[in-house]
Design brief:
There is one protein chain. This protein is of the alpha/beta class. It folds into 2 domains: about 130 residues, no CATH class; about 100 residues, Trna Endonuclease, Chain: A, domain 1 (3-Layer(aba) Sandwich). The protein contains 9 helices and 13 strands. A 5-stranded mixed sheet has the order 6-7-8-10-12. Strand 7 and strand 8 form a beta hairpin. Helix 3 crosses helix 4 and helix 4 packs parallel to helix 5. The N and C termini lie far apart (about 50 Å). About 5% of the residues have low confidence. The structure holds S-adenosylmethionine. S-adenosylmethionine binds next to helix 4.
Length: about 280
């Protein structure tokens, strides 16, 4: 049997004090002491490993992982993701000196991205049919469809139907307009010989599916539903790399020792998946 005494790993009062430092008006109810999590992370991981806390709480695990040179992912459904975790981790990046900071010589540095989930794309209408949620603006819908179909959402500056691409020559265009032959003829004229286009729309004129060799037409929400899997035990998600991933250095270079001075602020401000203004 192994006993971890509070002298070694801290106790609830320590944890409360640590939590209070980040939000004194609304102290998180069940925080863990940083020293306790430090011991667990020391035993279970190496520097550079990825630590997942899918119940982030006040963010202690992510805080300690960050100070110990681990990468981390935190998931939290409560409002305290914004009121507690975000400010806490931002202060950690800025070199906060509470908890285990002195013990690990934490000087600040690194960064994190803060994402919020978009609202559900499909909603049931009053007849029980799945329709696109009214919360989605045309831009959000286009971005969502690009993600779903494995395209990078990157609207072209001048060509309206080039909203995203999966390769240099393969484009996606999402619209809620009714698609006519006349409309597609105009696009087909602009498409270069080796370019192809996927058009996601609600409705299109009969007979258009096979009309163009390099234009594919698909109906939403049916194309989304085709991607849903019901009654399966093993879900293999189609995870599309973020465009930023390509800019990241190779893994070995990424896990740099704690910098001596706080690094510039890479902390992404709170926004949702589609950069909607709050409120
Ligand atoms: C006791 S706290 C976790 C403490 C935290 N792991 C730490 O390092 O101190 C549990 C948290 O899980 C969150 N939670 C519960 N169900 C969740 C879910 N389905 N998805 C994300 N977070 C969830 C709660 O809101 C609560 O903040």
């Amino acid at each position: 049997m192994t006993l971890w005494t509070y002298q070694e790993v801290g106790h609830n009062q320590d944890a409360k004090k640590e939590a209070k430092a980040f939000n004194s008006e609304n102290v998180f109810a069940t925080p863990k002491p940083e020293r306790l999590i430090e011991r667990i992370i020391t035993l279970a991981t190496n520097p550079g490993d990825l630590v997942l806390d899918s119940f982030l709480g006040s963010g202690t695990t992510a805080t300690v992982a960050h100070k110990m040179g681990r990468r981390w992912i935190g998931i939290e459904l409560g409002e305290h993701a914004k009121t507690h975790c975000y400010p806490r981790l931002k202060q950690v990046v800025d070199g906060e000196q509470g908890g285990i900071s002195k013990a690990v010589n934490w000087q600040g540095g690194g960064g994190f991205k803060f994402y919020t989930l978009a609202p559900s794309l499909l909603k049931e209408d009053k007849f029980g049919n799945l329709v696109i949620s009214k919360e989605y603006s045309p831009d959000m819908l286009a971005a969502a469809m690009a993600k779903h179909e494995g395209f990078r959402y990157q609207p072209h500056e001048t060509v309206f139907w080039k909203q995203g691409q999966s390769s240099e020559m393969d484009f996606i265009f999402t619209t809620t307009q009714f698609i006519t032959r006349h409309f597609l003829d105009a696009i087909a004229e602009e498409l270069k010989g080796d370019e192809s286009l996927l058009v996601c729309c609600l409705q299109f004129e009969a007979g258009l599916e096979e009309a163009y060799p390099n234009i594919n037409l698909r109906k939403i929400p049916q194309m989304l539903l085709n991607r849903c899997e019901f009654g399966k035990d093993d879900y293999s998600f189609n995870i599309i790399p973020s465009p930023l991933d390509e800019l990241r250095p190779p893994q070995d270079e990424r896990i740099t020792p704690v910098p001596e001075k706080p690094a510039p602020d890479h902390t992404t401000p709170i926004h949702d998946l589609f950069n909607q203004p709050e409120g």
